[in-house]
Amino acid sequence: MESEETDEKNALPNVSIIVATHNSESTVDECLRSILELDYPRQLFEVIVIDGGSNDLTVERVKSHPVKLISHHLNAPESYNYVLKTINNEIVGFIDSDAKVESQWLKKLIKHLDDPEVAGTGGNIETWNKDNLIPRCVGYELAYRYRRLPREVIKVATMNFIVRKKVIDEVGGFNESLSTQYDTDLGARIVRSGYKLVFDSNVICYHFHRATLSAFFKQQFKYGQNTWKVYLKYPHLVEGDQITDWWMNIQPVLYVVAAISFVASLIVNFNQAGLWIFLSLAFLVLLQYTLSAAKISLIFHDFSAMFLIVLYFTRAVAWTLGGTTSFVSSLFKKGGG
Fold first, then answer.
1. CB 185 within 8 Å of CB 175
2. Residue 90: other Cβ atoms inside 10 A
3. pTM
4. Which helix (H) or strand (E) holds 161?
5. 45: three-class secondary structure by DSSP
6. Over the stretch 167-191, which tens digit does the pLDDT of each residue have?
7. Are the CB atoms for 220 and 318 separated by under 8 Å?
8. Alpha-carbon distance 30 to 99, whole Å?
9. Cβ(171)–Cβ(186) under 8 Å?
10. How many Å from the N-terminal Cα to the C-terminal Cα in the chain?
11. Which of 71, 165, 202, 278 could be cross-linked to 262 through a Cys-Cys bond (beta carbons 3.0 to 4.6 Å apart)?
12. Residues β-bridged to residue 199
């Protein structure tokens, strides 16, 4: 038995698992407990928590666990780059503080790195707080999108991701100008460099989704602020993938056109052309939202998933406003410079 354990330790690589946190007092305990209880030799992995200036009990909760705590009041990619400079282990794992993983998470993922062409890998995302309507519906839609994923993907969310440290170094680390969508940007550079990213649907991470519409809106607004920047840098991503398809990407454009058409119709005393464009787009979007929600309701046998119509609308408005305000702000900065 001891010989088998020794062989396993010799075969497995050392891993540094990074957890970024900010005001996560309600989830960070279970997050860290799930990591510390991984079925992986404890002496072969370390856990580093980066706190981004929490003003609740997050830090106190973290200190109750045998992990390394670093306070770094910067955005996530800046904090990741800061910590990566201090790490010597060959493999780096990323788990969000509002997520928890199954005990086999690391062992299942690490196997994919036996292939030297694979730079990183991630797993499936299930809903932690599915007893609540909004998180449950968010989880249904996310599960539906994730079940379409092939083995090789172009991005992996940093809530559930392991990667070779040398590859992150080769591609220049995380993009510190992006407070969100930095994982999409990193994935694009890794794949462009000739490496593979692998998705394993049998590896499970549980995510605590936003529980209110306002929290969901704020989250999606932040995504919208940076999505256009990533797409401007990597135009091929606009075509979409199995996670974020072309229909999701085009919605902000449709919303802007609809808004301009409606305002134009008001200015010229309800011009029929502008009003017709607005009503046509509104009908198209509502029809697609309804059909998508109905399909997911049938797949998961839960009529409450029809609430996705509200979530689709909330997300699209948030992306549109976030992207528009960010784009306009960038124009003013260039003009001022």
1. yes
2. 13
3. 0.90
4. strand 160-164
5. strand
6. 999 999 999 999 899 999 999 999 9
7. yes
8. 8
9. yes
10. 67
11. 278
12. 122
Domains of the chain: 2-210 (3.90.550.10), 246-336 (no CATH)
For 288, half-sphere exposure in the C-beta direction (CA atoms, 13 angstrom radius) is: 13
45 beta partners: 15
Instruction: Give the closest residue to 195 by CA, choosing from 93, 111, 117, 109.
Output: 117
The backbone region for 172, taken as left when phi is positive above 0, alpha when psi lies in -120 to 50, beta otherwise, is left
- Rounded CA separation 212/12 (Å): 41
Question: What is the DSSP track for 48-83?
Answer: EEEE----SSHHHHHHTSSSEEEE--S-HHHHHHHH
DSSP 3-state of 207: strand
Cα-atom radius of gyration of the chain, to the nearest Å?
A: 22
Residues 6+ apart with CB under 8 A from 237: 154, 184, 188, 230, 231
Nearest to 230 by CA among 159, 322, 305: 322
Rounded average pLDDT over 9-26: 90
Cα–Cα dist 201/125, whole Å? 9
Which two structure tokens, joined as six digits, stand for 8?
């396993």
For residue 162, what are the β-bridge partners? 93, 121
Is the Cβ–Cβ distance between 62 and 69 less than 8 Å? yes
DSSP 131-190: TSHHHHHHHHHHHHHHTT--SEES---TTEEEEEHHHHHHTTS--TT-SSSHHHHHHHHH
DSSP state of 158: T
What distances in angstroms separate CA 193 from CA 129, 187, 188, 283, 299, one per listed residue?
A: 37, 10, 9, 42, 38
Give the mean model confidence (pLDDT) for residues 230-250.
84
pLDDT, mean over the chain? 91
Distance CA 72, CA 59 (A): 12
Q: Which amino acid is at 142?
A: L
CA-CA distances (angstroms) from residue 115 to 67, 74, 122, 164, 306?
Answer: 30, 34, 15, 12, 42
